[in-house]
Amino acid sequence: MTATATAPKRLWEIADELGEIEALVAENEGVLTPDLEARLDALEGTFESRVESIALMAREAKLDAEKAKAEKDRMAAAQKRNEATVAWAKKYLHECLIKAGTRRVETHRATVRIQKSGTPSIDYAGDVMELPRQFVRVIPESVTVDKAALTEVVRAKGEIPEGVVVTYSESVVIV
Q: What is the pLDDT of residues 20-31, one digit of tens each?
């Protein structure tokens, strides 16, 4: 025959059993019977050691969480520094390419080019009421230029009203 090992009791089971023993002792008017004493002896040290194990586990998890947060903060700072470096480098390269009168430089390890953005910037300095109706947005108590409608016409290479200024921002692309 093989002996089967019983699974250790869970903390809540130990707490329940201690409460049960306490209630039975109270029922017996404070008398600890040999049966209750045997049950108590079987639990002796178990509850405290389980509480200690769980407390140590929680303490370890808290320290791990603090280390993870510190690492996350360190990585966020590194990300911010690296993104700032990329932004500076692209701005600097844009200025240099413009000064050199070129829009593209290719080397065996990198290609740098100035690229227009896909979305134009629309400005209109004239009287909004002079624009064709399709390019005007009426909001209660104000009339503004409908830049979305103008952008659609610009993208479709359609005819735009006089006075509308279309510009594209540029950015440096490093490949």
A: 888 888 888 878
